[in-house]
Amino acid sequence: MATPTATSPQHAGAFLQGTKRLLIDGELVDAASGATFETIDPGTGEVLATVAEGGAEDIDRAVKAARRAFEGEWSTLNPSERGRIIHRIGDLIAENAEELAELDSLDNGKPKAVAQAADVALAADLFWYMAGWATKIKGGTVTPSVPYLPGAEFHAYTLREPIGVVGQIIPWNFPLLMAAWKLGPALTTGNTVVLKPAEQTPLSALRLGELMLEAGLPKGVVNVVPGFGETAGAALAEHPDVNKIAFTGSTEVGKLIARAATGNLKRVSLELGGKSPNIIFDDADVDAAIAGAAQGIFFNQGEVCSAGSRLYVAEEHFDQVVEGVSAAAKGIKVGYGMDADTEMGPLVSQEQFDRVTGYLKKGQEEGSSAVAGGNNIDRPGYYVEPTVITGADANHAIVREEVFGPVIAALPFSDVEDLARQANDSHYGLAAGVWTRDISKAHKLAKRIQAGTVHINTYHVFSAELPFGGYKQSGWGREMGEEVLNNYLETKSVIVGL
Ligand code: NAI
Ligand code: MG
Fewer CB in 10 Å around end: N or C, the chain? Predict the structure, then answer.
């Protein structure tokens, strides 16, 4: 246990006691190997809880349970019953908001207030939204014309069916919310799931698993198996009886997942990295744009796949914007996530701390400079300063690679015609921002930018109704909205000769 502080958890304390076990077939069980691992509080660097470490054998057990559930009770519920259970999951998330927010704050480092206002609220809303789809999934009727059967008449229709057993592998940046994004659509379409949370942040997914049972979800429909990527994650991605794998995380591991899926050609959806451009034109509301640029990179310690990490600013506003974003960076209260006045927490892990500080060093070596921040913060835990970089060049790593920390590179532009090319000069294509008062310019650019989400005069708007996902190497398929249902459904054509 972390040393109790003045801000010890009021709601999550009980859940942190004892070894947290895997949820398989409706039961909390030890790993087959008996192995456990420790999850760390990144705000202190100390052990937060001990968790059973799932491996290949546990994944296999969970897949078998999910298969039984898919063929059993779950498939006999009608869509309305299914929807009501999913809706109750949303209710229970809302009722346990403080506990879930504390778990994510302690496990990930993010401010509890942010976890409660964003992660937990969005997770509940996602289930409420997805619950409604359960009763609205439908095929269509079709009149086939068959040239080689002149005069023949048919009645034909399509059925939308669940794919079966789904494996879901999620990251640590929004632990509860990523579980919700994955589970909501899989359940509303009638699939069953084996979920592997990130090894850095397994706690809220385990608690969510308990709440799902409380909501009336039949046993085995959702199984939660914490463990490491190379073992539990890889076993899930290559399992021959998993029909579909959904992954959120690094582009590098996304490619491994796609490869592992070839064994049985399971369906694959991927939500991967980004290096999203945020563009401020000469005719923008500069104050709003400055606030939006700062929020676009510093929200959630910058550990957001769609973070606006490349800031393109019209030359005439460059100094003012850099000054404004730097002032915002310097004004952010960085601290322990459970402290009420904390605005930015630590990074999630030693590994992520090393990666981000590595990029800060690399930026210096490449010749760019930090006008705000630029260093780690000398205290226990994995804290870095909100950082604004100038003087970087389009070829620098700090402009091309995903840093996944509170680090923004600001670049001036003068040639508006060349902007779309610059914005699209990336292997990634997840999100973008455009700040201008000229609606024609805004919509034209929105069309030309290769990204799954384009914000105009705003940034970081996530909503259950809006599809989210990537062009290019930012992924395959979309999360959320009606669109995500396609990730979890097969289509069958049924043809009747009349
Ligand atoms: P990662 O991609 O290694 O981890 C994400 C998930 O994949 C975790 O659950 C992990 O256990 C699992 N995983 C790892 N290796 C696996 C394998 N071989 N087979 C199956 N599952 C595997 O991400 P990591 O190492 O935590 O962070 C590295 C970088 O990835 C970050 O710096 C960031 O740039 C990016 N990232 C992007 C995220 C996004 O939301 N798109 C989220 C997290 C990280
Ligand atoms: Mg990794």
Answer: C
Pocket lining: 355 vs ligand 1, CB cutoff 6 Å? yes
Task: With residue 50 as reference, give the H or E element that holds it.
Answer: strand 46-52
CATH architecture of residue range(s) 13-272+475-494? 3-Layer(aba) Sandwich (3.40)
- How far is ligand 2, taken at its centre, from the CA of residue 491, in Å? 34
CA of 352 to the centre of ligand 2 (A): 10
Chain region(s) in the chain for CATH 3.40.309.10: 277-463
Ligand nearest to the CA of 225: 1
Q: Which CATH class, in words, describes the domain spanning 277-463?
A: alpha beta
427-451: b or e for each residue (b if 16 or more CB lie within 10 Å)? Answer: ebbbbbbbbbeeeebbeebeeebbb
pLDDT tens profile 110-169 = 999 999 999 999 999 999 999 999 999 999 999 999 999 999 999 999 999 999 999 999
189 lines ligand 1 (CB under 6 A): no
Nearest alpha-carbon partner for 404 in 305, 281, 260, 286: 305
Among 360, 367, 419, CA closest to 392? 367
Residue minimizing CA distance to atom 26 of ligand 1: 171
Hunting for tokens 């992954």 — which residue is that?
A: 247
Do 269 and 476 meet the contact criterion of CB atoms below 8 Å apart?
yes
Catalytic positions: 271, 305
Strands 468-469, 478-479: pairing is antiparallel
Please state the atom number of ligand 1 nearest to the C-alpha of residue 178: 40
- Token pair, residue 226, equals 């914490």
Looking at the CA of residue 271, tell me the nearest atom of ligand 1. Answer: 41
Q: What is the pTM of this model?
A: 0.98
Half-sphere exposure of 455 (CA within 13 A, CB side): 26
State whether residue 175 is helix, strand or coil. Answer: helix
Other Cβ atoms closer than 10 A to 469:
28
Q: Distance between CA atoms of 307 and 135, rounded to whole angstroms?
A: 35
- CB of 273 within 6 A of ligand 1: the answer is yes
Secondary structure class of 357 (helix, strand, coil): helix
Summarize pLDDT for 358-416 with one digit per residue, the tens: 999 999 999 999 999 999 999 999 999 999 999 999 999 999 999 999 999 999 999 99
Range(s) of the chain covered by CATH 3.40.605.10:
13-272+475-494
d(CA 238, CA 245): 9
Amino acid at 434: V
Q: Name every residue whose Cβ is closer than 8 Å to that of residue 414 and which is 6 or more positions away in sequence.
A: 314, 315
